[in-house]
Design a protein that fits this description.
Rossmann fold; single chain; 16 helices; alpha/beta; disordered C terminus; 2 domains; 6-stranded parallel sheet; 402 residues; 40% helix
Length: 402
């Protein structure tokens, strides 16, 4: 069997995380066709948790963090190790992309890379980090044999900026399931007896947590449950201090147990998705698979994922107005639409099959296809912004705040 290395995840078994869940399902669905090795961070798995294999895939542990600034070292060492044995490198994220010109020049290894949204535009990065990620993204697209976008809006971006015909592969979400609550669940989570909305995310400004919490100070007939890493930033700490005492607001720390996470999301009457950067977000497609109506931040990525069939907001006033003026019948109708989209597009069997096709293609392709999009010459940056296509801005200043 051909040897395939999966690089850029925290590791397996997966905790709650998009790349980790993706790697888990690729391995589960394709382990009889390929010999997989998955790189893991020993910082996230103690000695008792570490395994030599997972569902047929070999696990290789490295003593670096998979996220933050150390991800550059983590991914780089993973790539260096993989070139000595792997036929295909599936690289999730661009942190180690500075090595790809050397890999392509000195080896015949095949490179498939997912750029993971437009990472360098995220507010959480400082200027130096943004400059590096911008540079790494360019190298990732140029020196890979196939690059992946997880959303049509990201495909538009790579086509316009790099002339690359990126392949769209989203995330699956059908690993989630509705969980019946028990008496013990109600004791631990008293909000289960109320009507509530839910939001699961990293507590970062780009996820617009402040807008959601501000809106619920004006709403008295609905609770909000927000699950996230409040202690990881000053932004999160300040929000928790400001809003934790409000009666209809529940702020929970990260939950990695799948049953508990599915329980909390599955019993909500609305999922609020505040992400303003990135592509197809795993938490959004999971909520769609749980048959939840969606109120999402108004950007092209979220509209694309929901096929423009969800409800959208740009301010706390939009959130409050929607909740106060929307009937349960309309919520249920939207939930059915979201579930139908998820069943058609966001299932892991579909996603894994797309990766199988890409691996087969990467093994035979010599040069990647290029395109010359007309959009790059027909619209200026101001026009793109008005059309809510700001991510396609050609002369983007990564020093500006977004």
């Amino acid at each position: 069997m051909k040897k395939v290395a999966i690089i850029g995840t925290v590791g397996l078994p997966a905790n709650y995380g998009g790349f980790e869940t993706l790697a888990s399902h690729i391995v589960s669905n394709l382990n009889e066709k390929y010999d997989f090795t998955v790189y893991c961070s020993s910082k996230k798995y103690n000695k008792n948790q570490r395994k030599s294999t997972f569902k047929g895939a070999k696990l290789k542990y490295l003593p670096f963090n998979a996220n933050g600034i150390q991800s550059i070292i983590y991914d780089s060492v993973s790539i260096f190790h993989a070139v000595f044995y792997a036929d295909v490198l599936i690289i999730l994220g661009v942190a180690g992309a500075w090595m790809l010109p050397f890999v392509k020049l000195f080896t015949n290894k095949r490179i498939i890379i997912s750029i993971d949204g437009i990472e360098w535009k995220r507010d959480k990065w400082n200027r130096v980090a943004k400059m590096y990620l911008w540079f790494a993204e360019k190298l990732a697209v140029k020196y890979s044999h196939i690059d992946i976008s997880d959303n049509e809006s990201i495909q538009d971006y790579t086509a316009m900026r790099y002339g690359s015909l990126s392949r769209i592969i989203e995330y699956g979400g059908d690993h989630v399931e509705y969980v019946e609550s028990t008496r013990n669940d109600h004791e631990i989570f008293p909000f289960l007896k109320y009507l509530y909305a839910v939001k699961v995310c990293r507590i970062e400004p780009e996820n617009n947590v402040h807008l959601v919490l501000e809106a619920f100070t004006k709403i008295k007939n609905l609770y909000i449950v927000v699950v996230g890493n409040w202690a990881n930033s000053q932004y999160g700490k300040e929000l928790k201090q400001k809003y934790s005492g409000i009666e209809n607001i529940y702020l929970l720390d990260p939950i990695y147990d799948q049953r508990t996470l599915d329980l909390i999301r599955g019993h909500a009457i609305l999922y609020i998705h505040g992400h303003s950067a990135g592509g197809t977000n795993p938490s959004l497609v999971e909520a769609m698979n749980l048959n939840l109506p969606i109120l999402a931040y108004r950007v092209s990525y979220n509209k694309t994922t929901t096929e423009n069939q969800a409800q959208y907001f740009s301010s706390s006033e939009d959130i409050a107005s929607f909740i106060l003026n929307t009937s349960m019948e309309k919520l249920k109708s939207n939930a059915s639409i979201m579930k139908a989209i998820a069943d058609r597009r966001y299932r892991w069997s579909i996603i894994a099959h797309k990766y199988e096709l890409l691996i087969s293609e990467a093994l035979v392709v010599e040069e990647k296809s290029t395109i010359n999009p007309k959009l790059a010459t027909e619209f200026d940056n101001d026009a793109l912004q008005k059309l809510q296509l700001g991510h396609l801005k050609y002369n983007y200043n990564f020093f500006e705040n977004r």
